[in-house]
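Sample 3 of the quickstart, ligand nicotinamide-adenine-dinucleotide:
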Amino acid sequence: MKLIHKTAIVTGAGNGIGRATALSFAKEGAQVVVSDIDYAAAQTTTQKIKDMGSEAIAVKTDVSNLADLQSLIDKTVRHFGQLDILVNNAGVILPKRLDDVSEEDWNRLCDINLKGVVFGCKLALPELRKRKGNIVNMASMTGVSGQQNNPVYSATKGGVIALTRSLAIDCAMEGVRVNAVCPAGVSTPLLEKWLANSENSEKARINQDYSHLLGRTATSEEIASVVAFLASNEASFITGQDIHVEGGATLGYGVGPKAEWHSLLPPR
Ligand code: NAD
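Result:
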């Protein structure tokens, strides 16, 4: 077990990648603080962990609220006596062209996707320094490659990657590692919502699948296992990296949409 005797906070752990990460951490022996703005969802994840015979508590947190973040850290230390790992996973999408983005949209996205990560790191660092712990930030391939109709979300995720690198530099001599994970498409409630709101959801789903060379989106568990690796001592010489878990989505040159390209392949 990779995370035995470790205490980890996972934000946005009530659903999707965050839930899978919390479950995978528990399987690896960690005590998990399941944090989400949706308390009922956090409780469901917590119960699943307890059913596995592992330890977890649910904490209602809006990551865009600094008082909530401080209280999350305090509750963790009060309950488990330590904090070894922070996974800043909570995030929201904004599939809009820039022409349609309002100031309110911008503030919401930045507050949750960027400010929540910046201050999550800041407030957790005093405890992480004591334990020579580490941080894993959930970024996105959109922050590396950009994405159609997604400029503001992509900007927040690019910001998370830049923050990860800079913080890794500042924290290295304190023994704290900081990394980011960049998924492409992952089958979660977030992706389902995005597909459902597309003009042609079925076509959008096929395009989404085949925009990955592997011909499908990732499962949440496939992302969670990379987060667990980065958070563990197995990754003790990895810091400041953005790890691309993208099924080949960014490979290839000179072909049109990968969906069409795949359909031109002869059957095997
Ligand atoms: P999801 O919507 O399925 O789950 C996100 C969870 O975050 C939900 O439980 C939600 O209640 C919680 N949340 C939302 N706002 C919050 C807030 N202000 N404070 C605390 N919790 C909040 O999403 P997901 O697909 O599992 O995404 C998780 C992370 O992975 C996000 O940062 C997302 O940007 C990133 N990501 C997702 C994909 C994908 O295809 N699903 C791809 C790349 C990156």
